[in-house]
Amino acid sequence: MKYMYLFGALLFSSVSFGETFNKTVNLSPFNLKWMNHEVAGTYYRSSDHPNAVFVVEAYFRNCPYCNDNAHNVDALKDHYSDNDLVQVLDVSSDCSNRDYRDWIAEHNPNHPVLNDCNWEVLGPLGITGMPTAVVLDCNLNELYRTGGTWDSWEIRRLRNVIDRQLAAGCE
User: Fold this and answer.
1) d(CA 90, CA 111)
2) What are phi and psi of 37, to 5 degrees?
3) Which of 4, 86, 97, 156 is the most exposed place for a label (fewest CB within 10 A)?
4) How many CA atoms lie within 13 A of 33 on its CB side?
């Protein structure tokens, strides 16, 4: 019986956790290969969005929780579809172009899918598990972090963090 409780606690902890941050993560402006752009070889540059709030969703191709969460990431982008100041990004640690092609074909994301095979973004963010979503302000400071598949509460929390930052503006 005690193992059932332990399993339940582990399962619950892997589903979603959220923490509010307001710290510098030493993340520099980044340029990552944009895997679902219509022009092959295009790079996504964070510096092209100087006043944006960034939602970085770290994932990898064969992660079941990541795949379960893909529709939530699309829904978040849909919610902010009329606001270019909210940049929703799927950032993967996969190195194989085939993994990206397969994942994009399966999920048809409505937002940029970026290749971070060398952990240029995921490393400085301290990503240790996937999926992990990190909300960053325009200066690339971490505002909020959550892991696992998002439930309705977590989606509301993410929107609240984003909306507060939009209201505050870029400083």
Assistant:
1) 7
2) -75, 145
3) 4
4) 15
pTM summary value: 0.86
- Work out the angle at residue 127's Cα, subtended by the Cα atoms of residues 14 and 167, and round it to the nearest 5 degrees: 90
> Alpha-carbon distance 118 to 72, whole Å?
26
Q: Look at residue 171 in the predicted model and tell me its pLDDT.
A: 79
Give the pLDDT confidence of 110-161 residue by residue, as tens digits.
999 999 999 999 999 999 999 999 999 999 999 999 999 999 999 999 999 9
Show Cβ contacts of residue 37 under 8 Å, excluding neighbours closer than 6 positions: 44, 112
Burial label for 108, CB within 10 Å (0-12, 13-18, 19+), is exposed
Residues counted in the chain? 171
Superfamily of domain 17-168: Glutaredoxin (3.40.30.10)
